[in-house]
Amino acid sequence: DIVTRLRYLATSFPAICTFIPSIGKSVENRDIPALVINTKASTIDKHFLFQSGQHAREWIAPATTLYITEQLVSRYATDDRVKRILDRMTIDVVPMVNPDGYSFSWTNTRLWRKNRRNNGGSFGVDLNRNWDDHWCQRGASTSPSSDTYCGPSPFSEPETRAASSYVLNRGFRFDGAIDFHAYGQLILRPPGYTNTPTPDEAVLKSVGSQMQAAIRSNSGRSYTNDMAWQLYYTTGSADDWWYNAASKVKYVYCIELRDTGSSGFNLPPAQIIPTGEENFAALKYLADYVISKKN
Description:
By secondary structure, the chain is of the alpha/beta class. Helices cover 34% and strands 15% of the residues.
């Protein structure tokens, strides 16, 4: 259980972890929890965000987010590299943005993707098409029955309102953010809505290449490093909103986890920890890089 695990981490490492029971409610009134990792070191000057669970059926995404989170907090006292990262950077973790859909994928329809909004004849809005950035253009649908239904308006869904408000109301600008998804083994950077590269294309591509190398060194797995639109066009996504909107996050990535299609969304349990380990390696490189930059 995700909430139980977050509570456990906050209880086990109270000096550096704070559990937030709810940053907002879902359509069906479930809480959207968060965890803040903050060592309170005087050297902290960077801020990072992990998010996952927008799409219900992508079970490996919250599992990987929790694995990386636990590795960071449990190694703080013994791992010099982790200590260096956490003494320079706070990390906010929102592992389950779509608790209704996630629950439904366990109890009813395994491959359910959207939230559980009652559209009147169908259910669900694709939360990663509901953010207020180039909303409901290419790669999104106006049909309520579609898996990529963008909703009746930007931020129409309480889940995306909660997740976006959390970013804007933290009192600082996040330096980086990762939205974990599955599957495909991809390291995707903005933009998703256009094939015109962002002003930060060169650095985001270079950093993505080093994350790719860290994964390969850890596990031998190959992740593709691309702009998001090269997978397919998406509009109203979290990563484009993070980069383009009021939040103005620079180091933004959407990571599509294992595998490349042989198991798809039904990734075998034996691959959960290896997926976490290889992405922990990538995260450490990204964190080190962000820390090394003055802005």
